[in-house]
Amino acid sequence: MNLSNIPLSLKALFTGYIVVVGVGLMMAGAQIMLTHGQSDGKPGLSIDDVIYSYYGNRSNSKLENKLNGSMKDKAPVKERLKIINWAKHGAEQQRWKNEIQPIILKRCASCHTSIPALPNLTKFEVIKGLTITDGAVDISSLTRISHIHLFGIAFIFFFVGLIFSLAVGFNKWLKAIIIFIPFAFLILDVSAWWLTRIDPAFAWLVIIGGFGYSLASTIMLSTSLYQMWVMPWRQSKDNNTDAWFDE
Prior knowledge:
Layout: H1 8-34, H2 47-54, H3 62-67, H4 77-88, H5 93-107, H6 109-112, H7 124-129, H8 139-164, H9 172-198, H10 203-239
Helix pairs in contact: 1-10, 2-10, 4-5, 8-9, 8-10, 9-10
């Protein structure tokens, strides 16, 4: 049995899964661009974005880095500079009440009080903690993200590889390597997060890991769709039959 001659019901099942996973991967890419991709304040994912996300931008506070990075569009320049100036000059509580808190309530509170993953910036103690020098990502956060990423993505790759294993036209060793590649690059990607936390020189491995498993997944997904639908249609067209509709 191969992808071109499996029952129509299985083709529908596999196609539905592939389409949803494909859209999910694109959404994941968009989410990376909107979070990590804005860490240096410039559009697009760069090495600096990766370094700032895991190693930190240790020349400034975390608050300043966010206001000049992913949160840059959330407030006018004048208000952002006022918050940065306050953070640089001791983050004094009285000035917080008079000048900074009104800006936070107006520009930040809607998200930072309703989304559990975001720090509640309306509390002085919380925002005060963000005015210290920006260091590496917190170990507990990185551990939580790592195990979710490993379990969730590996589960997706398992079914993508299972479907692709029914493909034809590949040497058995080449097929096995293509199926294994996403898992290898997934481990590389997550390991690179931890290594970059220690040394920014490892940031390149994060990009290589993500690109590697994305490329291998794209090959498997597109090949599977082609062999399920296009290949039978071309064969039936060459033979002047409608056999590809048969169970």
